[in-house]
């Protein structure tokens, strides 16, 4: 059986090893009298759990047909009934019995992905992160200067716990900067996923990063918080978002989305760079209390100064 993911992605209900946060197993035996004989609809199982027999609460270990329920971003608790069983689709925040460091081929990491990881990815791609298209898929690279190590390690822990990257903690690395100045940076990358290709295709044209037209669906409070922690700075009581690499049209689109998604007031300003058309976005001082309310719960303690 096939289901269609957003933007033309295809995936399977089957035995392919999927991305974490994509599937949890519901063991239902179409030949088990206890599974079939329960007339009432049992309560929905906890997220990430296997469903137990409604009567005995024991798992149906004899089931010849393990059926996989799927979690999709935005799908919440929809139910269908038929043949005496309960079927549910839920957004997942965890994936049980998954080895985060297990080597899995990129083409078998098929998604879908829940809204948390998508928010993180979209937020960092608006900021310092970048997507890398590879032979079999796409991976996301996260990067910060050494002075922001605490934030980057927190972000790594978050993504690692979601199962999207190696759990080994990133280390500070030396880099030679302008005028041979030694810089310290910290970085890490996700695993490569074929189901990340649509993200790359929406964010890049001829390897140049753009603001995707679908951003309104993924610019959540978490995504906005990641964007601010990556590229925001406090200026004159307001907040500046460094959007130097985006076009004037892209910056205006971002201002429009800030207003439509969050009712935030912002404007596009020239950076004043010589011989270059570069712009940043300024979130007005008068709208900062609302911004703090929206992103405050998601901002790491080391980055709180940006919104205070």
In short:
This protein is an alpha+beta fold and about 300 residues long.
Could you explain the architecture of this structure?
The protein has 308 residues and is α+β, with helices and mostly antiparallel strands. Among the domains are: 67 residues, no CATH class; 79 residues, Endonuclease I-creI. Helices cover 23% and strands 23% of the residues. The strands form 6 sheets. Strands 7-8-10-9 form a 4-stranded antiparallel sheet. A hairpin with a 5-residue loop joins strand 1 and strand 2. Helix 2 packs parallel to helix 5. The longest helix is centred in the last third of the chain and has 15 residues. It is globular. It starts with a strand and ends in a 13-residue tail after the last helix. The N terminus is likely disordered.
Going across the biggest sheet, name each strand in turn.
Answer: 7-8-10-9
For the secondary structure, the number of strands is 16
Rg computed from alpha carbons, rounded to a whole number of angstroms: 22 Å
Category from helices, strands and their pairing? alpha+beta
Count every helix, treating DSSP H or I runs of 4 or more residues as helices.
Answer: 7
Helix content: 10-25%
Mean pLDDT: 74
Task: Catalogue the unreliable spans.
Answer: 1-98
What are the secondary-structure elements, in order, as H or E?
EEEHEEEHEEHEEHEEHEEHEEH
SSE diagram, text form:
Elements: E1 2-4, E2 10-12, E3 23-27, H1 33-36, E4 66-70, E5 78-82, E6 85-89, H2 115-126, E7 130-133, E8 138-145, H3 149-161, E9 173-176, E10 182-189, H4 197-203, E11 204-205, E12 208-209, H5 221-231, E13 232-235, E14 238-241, H6 248-262, E15 266-270, E16 279-283, H7 288-295
Antiparallel strand pairs: 1-2, 3-4, 5-6, 7-8, 8-10, 9-10, 11-12, 13-14, 14-16, 15-16
